[in-house]
Amino acid sequence: MKSDRLPVAIIGGGASGTIVAAQLARRGVHSVLIDGSGRLGKGVAYSTTEPAHLLNVRAEGMSVWAGEADHFVKRFEAEGGDRRGFAERRLFGRYLGEILDEAVAGGSTRVLETEGLAAERRDGGWRIRLGNGETLDAAALVLAIGNQEPEGLREFAHANQRLISNPWGAAAQAAVQELAESGGNALLIGTGLTMVDVVLSLDAAGHTGSIVAVSRRGQIPRSHTEFDAAPVKSEEVPSGNVVELWRWLRRRSAEVGWRAAVDSLRPHSHGLWQSLDAGQQQRFLRHARPWWDVHRHRIAPQVADTVARLIAEGRLEIMAGRIVSARNVHAALEVEIRRRGAELPRAMLFDYAFNCTGPLHSISRTRDPLLRSLLDSEAVHPDRLGIGIDVDRCSRAIGGERLWALGPLTKGRYWEIVAVPDIREQAAEVAEDIARELDE
Ligand SMILES: Cc1cc2nc3c(=O)[nH]c(=O)nc-3n(C[C@H](O)[C@H](O)[C@H](O)COP(=O)(O)OP(=O)(O)OC[C@H]3O[C@@H](n4cnc5c(N)ncnc54)[C@H](O)[C@@H]3O)c2cc1C
Asked: Which of 206, 275, 363, 427 has the largest CB neighbor count within 10 A?
């Protein structure tokens, strides 16, 4: 069979994979969406069943269709929501599922609930080895595998019995239930959006014990609120230098408020990131990123209220500090934490610790078998920061033919490419590029 009549294989059925499959279906391009995690059509973020987990982007920003801004708003309004509101993430998961069902019903998309294990070039296309023992021949390959799992925590190397390394897995849910029933104490390592998710789950389950969340700077995501936008033109923003950009941001924040200043950079973020050389990008990741993340990726006001209430009640402590050591003692964890500024660490007892440090950043250490196979065969290469793979301006993997990547895997090129408003644009561009390539 001619490889162009074969389907496009999409590895990963989260938001990125689902949206690109739907975009291909609109162009009459057949695809097979492959995901064996049980989260097909939802992915990690939107498979939560916890009503307290809300979107951190207003409904009006969450359409999956580039150019159809109100598509999700209509869905949310049908459930009584408001365009400026923050929907439950599980509703967005249902919405994504409906998009996928539509593509499947139209006959252009097929789903395969299994893992992609390896891929190699074959007759101008790709042959993919699957976890169900089968192989799939495809005209093109799209990697939409999301974030890599967090790395193990060095300090817990000999104390991992009560460490939950994946905060969204079944073990995390069981630990939350156990903590709620026992009133036990929880340690959350990391104070970003993942920490907020675990705190919300514990609170919703009726947990009454104490929660300590620790990170080096102790910064937590800020809240959304209404403000007047203050757009800027790209020429007004300094490019090529992180320090100058930071100074500009501080000045602009004083003039128009930090939310308006931060958000004014959104339309320019890809260009600004690409204007930085590798050294400047590393500087951003090392020094500016913790501050950028908490101001840029804000939480819904209702979520911020819950976090504030728990802090006020003394049930949640946000600590700036460092884990020094951890060991299992009987049925608990003894963890030594040195607070920022303190000379000596203090030992504290916890029933569970959750790794909320966020996704793996070194792509060469990935445990994903399919990505591993592509890295080993040099069909893909790590980007210059090693946080994703090297892609060109069409999100084609550099070094691999008929191979595209989407979402977090392309962070090295775009940096701001993990939220739906960015992913939907990228998915539309990738689908267009694939359709063009297969048509030639
Ligand atoms: C908790 C959380 C909340 C978020 N909230 C928002 C929000 O409110 N608004 C917003 O815009 N953005 C939000 N984001 C960011 C963003 O929407 C997600 O990161 C985005 O959905 C990424 O989707 P994805 O499909 O690229 O990755 P994922 O959702 O991680 O999906 C990737 C899928 O690929 C599968 N996979 C991986 N390897 C293989 C393989 N070898 N074979 C087969 N399948 C494989 C995985 O099992 C997974 O199901 C949130 C992110 C998280 C983590």
From this structure: 427
